[in-house]
Amino acid sequence: MLLDLRGKKALVTGIANNRSIAWGIARQLRAAGAEIGVTYLPDDRGRAEHKVRELSAALEPSLFLPMNVMDSEQMEQVFAQLGEQWGGLDVLIHCLAFAGRDELIGDFSDTSPGGFRTALDISAYSITPLCRLAKPLFNTGASVVALTYLGAERAIPNYNVMGVAKAALEASVRYLAAELGRDKEVRVNAISAGPIRTLASSAIGGILEMIHNVEAKAPLGRTVTQLEVGNTAAFLASPLASGITGQTIYVDAGYCITGM
């Protein structure tokens, strides 16, 4: 059976520009035939909307909606419109993460209470209300895919509070998988991607050194691309992965098996 997502409806969060991992995922979902919905983080001047709308035009999204996960009313509006227009949901992609630059440098013990809450709310907790709102809309066999990183289980320099947030995200994936699988066999998994130069990763001090380290030590002798992560997301969203849930899948050229 070939990977075929025709007739499936997929909501993708977290596209910021053409380097976003979310963009790579959206492209591969669309290439497999899925109908795409896109959310963007709104700003006062509408710059994000313009940029993401222009970029995602090639995907021909049938839904294009603002969503700030710190705004519960806005999240509710997204799923209300999704339910009205689509009637159901097959794929939910969670590519949302944020931590203040000051929280990603220096000593972890210097993390501020506010910085900790913000990082955990956006990067980890947000998948929970998204799944709660999507729950009545999920079609049988639907798939949720979140994006994580090796810093969830190892102390990565300059990753700090984001590592804690990603650890919480991975735990959330397991609990959501246990909950959502019972009724309609909804699957929830995470992809742990190798370091890639993105807008989000640019806030991490030494990101280029991290990439070079992976290139030097990973079994494949390189890091990965957005499209490779997208291929794995498309697989997890498809019936080919019908027996996989609650897992963290590593797409990092094998770096995670090395001794760093």
UniProtKB/TrEMBL annotation:
Domain of life: Bacteria
InterPro entries cross-referenced by the UniProt entry: Enoyl-ACP_Rdtase_NADH (IPR014358), NAD(P)-bd_dom_sf (IPR036291), SDR_fam (IPR002347)
Catalytic machinery residues: Y149 (proton acceptor), Y159 (proton acceptor)
Binding site for NAD(+): G14, S20, I21, L96, K166, I196, R197, T198, L199, A200
GO MF entry, a single one: enoyl-[acyl-carrier-protein] reductase (NADH) activity
Biological process annotations from GO: fatty acid biosynthetic process
The protein's Enzyme Commission number: 1.3.1.9
Catalytic reaction equation(s): a 2,3-saturated acyl-[ACP] + NAD(+) = a (2E)-enoyl-[ACP] + NADH + H(+)
Binding site for substrate: A99
PANTHER family, sorted: ENOYL-[ACYL-CARRIER-PROTEIN] REDUCTASE, ENOYL-[ACYL-CARRIER-PROTEIN] REDUCTASE [NADH], CHLOROPLASTIC
Family to which this protein belongs: Belongs to the short-chain dehydrogenases/reductases (SDR) family. FabI subfamily.
Name of the molecule in the record: Enoyl-[acyl-carrier-protein] reductase [NADH]
Organism: Aphanocapsa feldmannii 277cV
Organism phylogeny: Bacteria, Bacillati, Cyanobacteriota, Cyanophyceae, Oscillatoriophycideae
